[in-house]
Amino acid sequence: MPPYRLFWEAMSGAMALEILLEEMGIAYVPVPVDMAAGEHKSAGYLALNPTGQVPALALPTGEVIGESAAIVIALGERHPGSPLVPGAGSPLRARFLRWLVYMAASPYMTFVQFNHPERFIEDEAAHPALVENARRRLLGQFTALDRAISGSPFFLESGVSALDFYLYMLIEFLGDNRQAFDGRARLASLHHAVAAREPVARVRARHG
Ligand SMILES: N[C@@H](CCC(=O)N[C@@H](CS)C(=O)NCC(=O)O)C(=O)O
Asked: Which of 41, 44, 60, 149 keeps 20 to 30 A from 34, CA to CA?
């Protein structure tokens, strides 16, 4: 069976998946996609992933799937029994899915506005206001996540899971821990505990 191939860009949503693959002990090959050069919109990449987005994961079967949350769920189903992705029979499953989808649908997408205001409005004069609005919304989304943390130091009371890796990544996207942690003590201790894990430090170093 060929290993998984993870279509990858530094400081993209690939980070959480890379951490998950490493923590689950699953063999994979990172495939860098040069987004600055527009490789994600090339005919070759679009044939693999019609949305032209990174991350994407090629399964050992050759099928390519996109969407970071879907990839986490698919990995859990293909490698059942890992506590990192609570399975269908777990009492934590519904909560796990709810917050995983929230992270991918809300803060991850707010980061697009934060980092790329030009995708939302062409008028450059409006960009600073759009970025500031995204920053405020991100902090509100981090507050919601801080309130939702039910474990200590990890998101779920059962211990470390893919939610922790995803949330760690979002905090790294913001880059300014002081802003993220101010008034959000649970978020700070979760980040601290995830950052201390050896596979996480190894993956984080690759993202520069
Ligand atoms: N909903 C997608 C979002 C992925 C996404 O926005 N990726 C960014 C890179 S971090 C991207 O590919 N942007 C280029 C584009 O959307 O055209 C997911 O969760 O995987």
From this structure: 60
- Same domain? For 101 and 166 the reply is yes
Ligand 1 neighbourhood includes 83 CB (under 6 angstroms): no
> Ligand 1 centre and the CA of 120: distance in Å?
15
Domain boundary among 52, 78, 104: 78
173 Cβ inside 6 Å of ligand 1: no
In a shared domain, residues 110 and 193: yes
pLDDT tens figures, 46-97: 999 999 999 999 999 999 999 999 999 999 999 999 999 999 999 999 999 9
Assess contact for 200 and 165: CB atoms under 8 A.
yes
